[in-house]
Amino acid sequence: MAWRRRVDRLLRRRPKAAPGEDRISALPDDLLLLVLRRLDTRAALGTGVLSRRWAGLPRELAALDLRVSDVLPPRYQRWLLRHRDIYSKGTFVLYRPRLARHEFMPNMTRYERRAMRAFTRSLEGLLAAGARRRVSRLRLEFFTTRNTGCIDRLISHAMDDWGVDDLEVIARPTFYQQTVHTFPSHGLCEEPGASRLRSLKLGCCVIPRRLHRYGALTRLVLQDVAESPPSAYENVFDSCPQLQVVHLNSCLCDRDAVMLLDAPESQIRELVIDNCVIGSVWLRDLPNLERLASMGTKLCFESDSVPFLRQWHLARRHGIEVEGFRQLLRRHLELNQFVEHTRDITDLIIRFTGPDRWIVPSTSPSSLLPNLRRLLVADVPSSWDVSLPRALLEMAPALETFHIHIASCMEEPNNEEIISWHPTKLRGHRLKEFVMAGFQGAERQVYLVKFVMEVCTALRRVAMFRNGHAQDKGHWDWEMVMQQHSWTQEEKDATLNQIMGAVSSAAPPVQVVLG
């Protein structure tokens, strides 16, 4: 109780605030700015009307995050969740006409119109204030309507007068109309040559004109871009050699079109093509590319097109789900067609999905990946054979870390589709760690573990976990997340007897983990 008495004495000694005294305003500017930075931008800008003491503080904010979602009432979110719930349960067929005509559309559009009117007024007030400020980052989120002129004016003013170097513009389609935002004919600002813009992210917008005029621009992210011809994207690579990072996420193009990336002067070091609707992307010449991620998009290389490529995330879906067409168009794949022009990569992530992801032995086997050090093969179905992991192991003699994630699959193994392999000539492999998540003790899985332990003389650790998955850490790194499983002693003994029979008695000891 002694500590309580000391606290009470300290509280009694503390001077009481005089009536009407504003102690928060008496704080130094640095502390007040720390408070403002923890508020949303709309609330932070509103503090300027509190008193003269606060009037100039919002001008010191280096980042402005203006979102129409901050204006939307909670009721709008409830309507949106209700709409998604109906569609997810498949009951929209029964309720769609009545809900769309009399409930959802009127209510959702009314909230969106009100939010945009309030949002537009706040932006016009910000422009009318005419205050001189220095802003390094500006983020805008708004609904795509006919009255977005103030959005374009704010972007132009921020780039020409405020010196913004990090700009993010996200246009949200309204509930009933899937439209995109189109910038004025002059582009983002009036003086692109004098712009400090280094990073630009556009969501649901048309690619603006004169991007090549922004000499400081090094990072470009295009997301949900409206359907555009391949030339619109090709021009970005050709005319903006200063770009170093380019991400294309869910961008639309002709499904049968081919995008040709031929930019010998390009400085691009990082390229992400994620679920873009396009026939294929051909890499002809990107001489400085080091990191590549291609998810859901067909990618083709030409010889020596990416001489400095070191990290690659490859995710592809192969085959047709419709059973009749699936049997007619079914084909097996050779790994050569994916990696024959990427000999210098050191880190590789592969995710093949779809019914036709079977990999057959190469007709011209060789060390196509002589410098590969780290490898993840993810989402391998439990009904699949071991063709892909074995083919990769034989193609990468310098591989040190090999992780595999096996996903549960309802499809039963088809013994007619097991690929026959010739005896391997691989010996003395440098592999040090082999980890398999989703290990069920199936015959093919045991065969792969035995094969690895037989040919990899430098092996130090083999881990097999029944429950686990590969968790992405960015586009080019991962972490194996495991859940411990309680193996019975009989299961452990049987599995270890099967596996350890392939290990030579003269081989160095290997740590074997069952989890």
Helix fraction bin = 25-40%
Distance N to C terminus: 50 Å
Fraction of residues in β-strands: 15-25%
Counting DSSP E segments of at least 2 residues, the number of strands comes to 22
Largest sheet: 15 strands, parallel
Q: Number of helical runs?
A: 13
Output mean pLDDT.
79
Strand order of the largest sheet: 1-2-3-4-5-6-8-10-12-14-16-17-18-19-22
Shape: elongated
- Write down the Rg: 29 Å
* Structural class designation: alpha/beta
- Which runs of at least 5 residues are low in confidence (pLDDT < 50)? 10-15, 324-330
What does this structure look like?
Helix 6 packs across helix 7 and helix 12 packs across helix 13. The chain has 13 helices and 22 strands. It has a 15-stranded parallel sheet. 30% of the residues lie in helices and 23% in strands. It has helices spanning 2-13, 29-37, 41-46, 52-55, 74-88, 92-129, 149-162, 230-239, 323-329, 336-339, 387-395, 443-455, 489-500, and strands at residues 63-67, 137-143, 166-172, 199-203, 219-223, 245-249, 258-262, 270-274, 280-285, 291-295, 299-301, 311-317, 333-334, 347-353, 359-360, 374-381, 401-407, 433-437, 461-465, 467-472, 478-483, 511-514. Helix 12 (443-455) links the parallel strand 18 and strand 19 (461-465). It is α/β, with parallel strands linked by helices. The protein starts with a helix and ends with a strand. The chain is elongated.
